[in-house]
Amino acid sequence: MELIRRNMTFHDAGNYCVSLRARLVSIHSNAENQQVYALCKNVNQNCWIGFENKPSTGFMWTDSSPVTYIHFQPGEPDNWNGVESCVIMKVNNQYNGTWSDQDCDADYDRSYFVCKIPNGAVAPQTTTPVIHTTTHDSGVSILTTLPHNVPSE
């Protein structure tokens, strides 16, 4: 799991996770919920999770995994004004990792989010330069930049 510290709409966050060969996090137990909560609480930000209410099917995980656990705060989901169908984890002391449905694409609901790489998938590789310094007997330093593949964070 990885916390992405970028404020995005739900659908933009989901697309960002896919670009990392991941999905918005699905949560299947209290232990997983606590892991996600710890990531979000550490930066004191509400976070999108990959739970979405589709008109034809109801709430589903965006990674198509089965719904085996839910943790909505009291009174949620409420689909306020008929526009809330995406789920965010709340992190203030009153809600302690409970979930609330929010407007998927409203600017005022942009939030951080958590991506989860599916089992067996490999995170994309990025090329990061490595700088080597060589100092010759004459006292002249030469910087050499070499490509080096490292996993993306």
What is the element layout, followed by pairings?
Layout: E1 2-8, H1 10-19, E2 23-24, H2 30-42, E3 47-54, E4 58-61, E5 84-89, E6 99-103, E7 111-116, E8 125-135, E9 141-151
Parallel strand pairs: 3-7
Antiparallel strand pairs: 1-7, 2-7, 3-4, 3-5, 5-6, 8-9
Low-confidence stretches: 125-136, 138-153
Overall shape: globular
Helix content: 10-25%
Quickly name the level 1 CATH class. Alpha Beta
- Which percent band covers the strand fraction? 35-45%
pLDDT averaged residue by residue: 82
Q: N-to-C terminal Cα separation, in Å?
A: 11 Å
Task: Explain this structure.
There is one protein chain. The protein has 153 residues and is α+β, with helices and mostly antiparallel strands. The protein has a single domain, classed as Mannose-Binding Protein A, subunit A (Mannose-Binding Protein A, Chain A, Roll). It is built from two helices and nine strands; from the N terminus they run βαβαβββββββ. Strands 1, 2, 3, 4, 5, 6 and 7 form a seven-stranded mixed beta sheet that branches. It is globular and about 35 Å long. The C terminus is likely disordered.
Describe the structure using short key phrases.
disordered C terminus, Mannose-Binding Protein A, Chain A, 9 strands, 153 residues, 7-stranded mixed beta sheet
Could you give a quick summary of the protein structure above?
This protein is an alpha+beta fold and 153 residues long.
